Amino acid sequence: MKCSKLDIICFVVLLQLSAIIATNYHGYKVYEVVPMTKKQTDIVHTLSEDPKYDFWREGRIVGKPSQIMVAPEDQGGFEENLSRNGLGYAVVAEDVEEVLRQEKIERSLTRSGLSIGDVTFSSFMLYNEQMAYVRRLATDYPDITTLELIGQSYEGRDILALKISSGESETAVAKPTILIDAGIHCREWIAPTVALYILYQLVQNSSNAALYQNVDWVIAPNMNPDGYEYTQRTVRISF
Q1: CA-to-CA distance for 148 and 146, rounded, in angstroms?
Q2: How far is 44 from 208, CA to CA, in rounded Å?
Q3: Structure pTM?
C-alpha cells in the first residue's frame, strides 16, 4: 500500500505525541549556574536558545542564577561546556522524576480536605477547583461581584472572569478598570494562584473595600485551562 506524504507526516506527529505522553524524567538533572562575567552571561544566554536545555529560570544579568534541566544523555557535554568556560554549577535536583512524584503526593495531601468552592494557597488547585471558587464568590457576594463568561477553550472549558465593583460611577466619567489575567503560560502554576489571592483579598477581606470604591476590577484567573489541566494531570515539563 502506498502512503501519501500527508500519511507519513501524520504518523510522525503521532509518534512524537506518544513520546511526549510517555515521557518520564528519571535521571534528568537541574543545574544552577551563576555567570560572574558578561562573557559568561552571554554563554548562558546562548545555551537558552538550544532546545536540548529546558530553562526553569534564566538569570539575564551577571550574578543572577539560571536553573537548567538537562537530559541524562546531554549532561556530559553540558558539564564539559560549563567547565571549559569557567562556569561553576551546582546540581539542585538529581532526579526530576522523583521531584515531580513528591510534588504530586504533597499536592494531593494538601488538597484532600478541600470542599467544592473552597480555596487554598498552600497548594496548586485544579482548574475545576479554581472555577468553583470563582463561582462561589459570585454567588456569596452578589452586591460587589459579577461573573462573566469571556470565552471557552479549545477543549470546551469555560474561561471565567469576576468583576468587582462598588456600582456605577457617581459622575459622568466612567470609573477606570484594572484588568488582571493569569494562567496564559500553562506551566506557571503560581500565576492563577496569585489571581485567586487577589480575588480573596478584594472580595472576602472587607478591610480592602476602599480598593474598589473608585475603580472596577476584572480578574480572569486562568486564561489557558486546557494547558493548565494538561500540565497538572499529565506532564508539566516539556521541551
Answers
A1: 6
A2: 43
A3: 0.67
User: 56: which 3 cell numbers?
Assistant: 526553569
How does pLDDT run across 156-175, given as a tens digit for each residue?
999 999 999 998 887 778 89
CB atoms within 10 A of CB 142: 10
Q: Are 126 and 232 in contact (CB under 8 A)?
A: yes
Q: What is the pLDDT of residues 51-76, one digit of tens each?
A: 999 998 998 899 999 999 999 999 99
Helix (H) or strand (E) holding 195: helix 190-199
Please tell me the distance from the alpha carbon of residue 220 to that of residue 153, in angstroms, as a whole number.
Answer: 13
CA dist 55 and 168 (Å) reads 46
Please state the φ and ψ torsions of residue 46, each to the nearest 5 degrees.
-60, -40
- Number of residues written out for the chain: 239
